[in-house]
Amino acid sequence: MKPFVLLSTRAEDVPADEEYALFLRYTGLEERDILRVRLESRPMPAFDLDSLSGIFVGGGPFNASDPAERKSGVQVRVEREFAALLDEVVARDVPFLGACYGVGTLGAHQGAVIDRVHSEPISVVEVTLTDDGRADPLVAGMPASFSAFVGHKEAISRLPPSATLLASSTTCPVQMFRVGRNVYATQFHPELDLDGITTRIHAYADYGYFAADELDLTLAAVRRAPVSEPSRMLRTFVERYAR
């Protein structure tokens, strides 16, 4: 089988390593089947897309809507590298699934409006598939509405005509979309379980996702409803595109 790639931007080792472990668990892939690239520590390699089964993008602390003067040199480099990669991915409709930061990268590439209007506190929300979403093979077999973990400083307010809206929530209009037939992004986290999001809450406690005195409230918010469905799409992605 040709490998998949996991592109990560997390500089913190504990959540970065756990993210990698969660992708392995929920895709069902072995370590030899995923090429892990931590973009915060080195430039993106030049990929031969014909030699890959598909590309995953994990989450991270970068925000596409950050003012240019507040972006670090690493963030500017990573954004430039993603733009070049997505030029080819979108043109060739290469299998791509971006979780969390995938919305910022793919959304920015396609000209979506990304801002802080629909930012989401760390919590569990009910995500509802659109008619196009219910017909999409990546979420085949999933219920029309399901619980998912979220926690973002930005979100897409308006999709461009090139994108197909697949899922929304009451507080965030774009929870999942597709470009072409095989290029996907989710605002929610399909890779996370309760232990994983708990790790991230502690790891990013000082990153402005919640106030200093809201740690216990945030931990309680992610326990308010069970989350089991979103991870299914990772295994489905592999089953569809492994070659």
TrEMBL record:
InterPro entries cross-referenced by the UniProt entry: ChyE-like, Class_I_gatase-like, GATASE
CDD domains: GATase1_1 (cd01741)
Pfam families documented for this protein: GATase
The protein's name: Glutamine amidotransferase
PANTHER family: GLUTAMINE AMIDOTRANSFERASE YLR126C-RELATED
EC id: 6.3.5.2
Keyword Nucleus: no
GO molecular function, one term: transferase activity
Ranges where the Glutamine amidotransferase domain occurs: 50-193
Presence of keyword Thylakoid: no
EC main group: ligase
Gene Ontology cellular component annotations, sorted alphabetically: cytosol
Species, as recorded: Microbacterium aurantiacum
